[in-house]
Design brief:
38 residues, 89% helix, flat
């Protein structure tokens, strides 16, 4: 149950970063988030 909520939050953050940042800055952010979630 908690996994689904984390996945939804992760997708929200991805969407936020995608719209907020230029592509060059998205990838390091995604890697950092992946480390935090794992």
């Amino acid at each position: 149950m908690g996994v689904k909520n984390e996945t939804m939050a992760y997708l929200e953050v991805l969407r936020y970063l995608y719209h907020k940042r230029p592509m060059g800055k998205v990838k390091p952010g995604l890697e950092r988030i992946s480390m935090l979630l794992s």
